[in-house]
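Annual report, structural modelling task.

Input specification for the zinc ion complex:
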Amino acid sequence: MFRSLIVFIAIGVIVWLVSRMLSNKRNTPRSKTGASNPHEIKKIVQCQQCQVFIPEDKAIKSENFSFCSQQHLEQWTQDQ
Ligand SMILES: [Zn+2]
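The model returned the following structure:
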């Protein structure tokens, strides 16, 4: 009786772990909606003008280049 209870709990823990792993995988594409997930690794890009590193979601994009601010985008465009 006692042993079957332990087996039952062990199966329950395994099912819980597997379902948690599966739901984590499913949640990953949801980060595109902008929900802040502290465990998510953000992509870091570099400003073309001052070489500072910034998270991609904070960067200002122009063609294939990234900038830390609108000002640096304009400065870089003028320098070209
Ligand atoms: Zn910059």
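The chain has one domain: 2-28+43-79.
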